[in-house]
């Protein structure tokens, strides 16, 4: 098996640990509470590039809310912001080509007339600008700090939300000008069902559900302490090896880029020159992406056509909304890599792709 679908989910690298309910008042509960606090502190240190934020001073940097994953984190950030500003009204700026966990809550809030989605930044008033750190389809890296600086120079009330699912522990992170940042455990070799939302101090959100007041009153419900501990261990490990992992994955991507020389009518799909080495989106013109994905799967190479949560929906693809032709979008597949992948796997995958594309084109011809 060669697994090149790491943008969809990664393989967990740490074994889960057993903890108790952090809200319990007895000794075991206090032990779990200390573990939760330590986990939150480790996330702060990664977010702030290892400035060693002390447990007793972390609150001055804002808050980290643990959630069930990137989708909940994005929904909490977007809806929570809108609900906190219902009286004043809120404008949202979000491209249609962003991940569904961003565009779907925006669409819902606008349908309810609780917010307005605009193509341009409002000059005044409450505004939430929603962007991805790394595009989930093409791997294009957004200059989030430049975007934030420009947006806030035009409207001082602008809040910047960054979906960090594809960039967390992979790309350099500078939170200057950023107000909220989300991440997902299973995108960085943690378990499924856990993630988080960082909120800058002073940014007000309303919770989406209520209960015991956990997570500073923003996200009720007993914390998934086992998943959180496992995620944080994976995050810490990835962060420590971030530069080495980056170079390793870049080499794997370079091998796969050789497909442009191996086959005719191959396009690399990206909008700019600053692209993550962890994602490679390619179109093999004349072959439908879904057919090629299936053919490769039968040979033991697992890739995708984009977001796993959209794979069974018949809608205009994100590539089309980004301006790529329908032909290019329909023939596109996405390779996504991990530090666990090897050069040997990349060379084998490259040969498999060449073989299957030639065979499918011959059958079509």
Lay out the secondary structure.
Blueprint: E1 2-3, H1 27-47, E2 63-67, H2 70-84, E3 90-94, H3 100-111, E4 115-117, E5 127-132, H4 144-154, E6 158-163, E7 180-184, E8 195-199, H5 225-240, H6 242-257, H7 259-262, E9 266-268, E10 279-284, H8 289-298, E11 301-302, H9 318-321, H10 326-330, E12 332-336, H11 343-364
Parallel strand pairs: 1-11, 3-4, 3-5, 5-6, 6-7
Antiparallel strand pairs: 2-8, 7-8, 9-10, 10-12
Helix pairs in contact: 1-5, 2-3, 6-11
Describe the structure using short key phrases.
Aspartate Aminotransferase, domain 2; seven-stranded mixed sheet; 11 helices; single chain; 365 residues; 12 strands; three-stranded antiparallel sheet; Aspartate Aminotransferase, domain 1; alpha/beta; 2 domains
Give an overview in words.
- The chain is of the alpha/beta class and 365 residues long.
- It has helices at residues 27-47, 70-84, 100-111, 144-154, 225-240, 242-257, 259-262, 289-298, 318-321, 326-330, 343-364, and strands spanning 2-3, 63-67, 90-94, 115-117, 127-132, 158-163, 180-184, 195-199, 266-268, 279-284, 301-302, 332-336.
- The chain contains 11 helices and 12 strands.
- The chain has a 7-stranded mixed beta sheet, sandwiched between helices.
- Strand 3, helix 3 and strand 4 form a beta-alpha-beta unit.
- Helix 1 (27-47) runs parallel beside helix 5, helix 2 runs parallel beside helix 3 (100-111) and helix 6 packs parallel to helix 11.
- The longest helix is centred in the C-terminal third of the chain and has 22 residues, at 343-364.
- The chain is globular and about 65 Å long.
- The two termini are 30 Å apart.
């Amino acid at each position: 098996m060669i697994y090149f679908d790491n943008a969809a989910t990664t393989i967990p690298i740490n074994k889960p640990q057993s903890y108790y309910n952090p809200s319990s008042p007895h000794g075991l509960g206090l032990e779990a509470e200390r573990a939760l606090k330590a986990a939150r502190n480790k996330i702060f240190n990664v977010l702030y590039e290892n400035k060693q934020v002390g447990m007793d001073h972390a609150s001055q940097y804002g808050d980290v809310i643990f959630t069930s994953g990137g989708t909940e984190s994005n929904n909490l950030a977007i809806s929570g912001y809108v609900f906190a500003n219902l009286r004043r009204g809120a404008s949202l700026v979000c491209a249609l080509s962003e991940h569904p966990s961003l565009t779907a809550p925006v669409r819902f809030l606008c349908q309810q007339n609780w917010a307005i989605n605009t193509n341009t930044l409002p000059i005044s008033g409450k505004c939430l600008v929603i962007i991805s750190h790394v595009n989930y389809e093409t791997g294009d890296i957004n200059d989030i700090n430049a975007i934030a600086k420009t947006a806030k120079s035009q409207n001082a009330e602008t809040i910047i939300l960054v979906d960090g699912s594809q960039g967390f522990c992979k790309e350099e992170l500078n939170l200057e000008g950023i107000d909220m940042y989300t991440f997902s455990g299973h995108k960085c070799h943690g378990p499924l069902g856990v993630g988080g939302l960082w909120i800058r101090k002073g940014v007000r959100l309303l919770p989406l559900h209520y209960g015991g007041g956990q997570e500073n009153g923003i996200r009720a419900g007993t914390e998934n302490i086992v998943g959180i501990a496992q995620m944080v261990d994976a995050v810490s490990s990835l962060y420590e090896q971030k530069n080495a992992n980056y170079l390793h994955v870049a080499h794997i991507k370079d091998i796969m880029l050789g497909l442009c020389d191996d086959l005719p009518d191959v396009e690399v799909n990206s909008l700019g020159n600053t692209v993550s080495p962890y994602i490679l989106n390619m179109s093999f013109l004349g072959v439908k992406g879904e057919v090629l994905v299936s053919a490769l799967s039968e040979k033991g190479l697992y890739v995708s056509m984009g977001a796993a949560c959209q794979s069974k929906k018949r809608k205009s693809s994100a590539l089309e909304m980004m301006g790529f032709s329908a032909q290019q979008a329909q023939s596109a597949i996405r390779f996504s890599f991990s530090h666990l992948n090897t050069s040997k796997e990349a060379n084998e995958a490259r040969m498999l792709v060449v073989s299957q594309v030639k065979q499918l084109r011959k059958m079509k011809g």
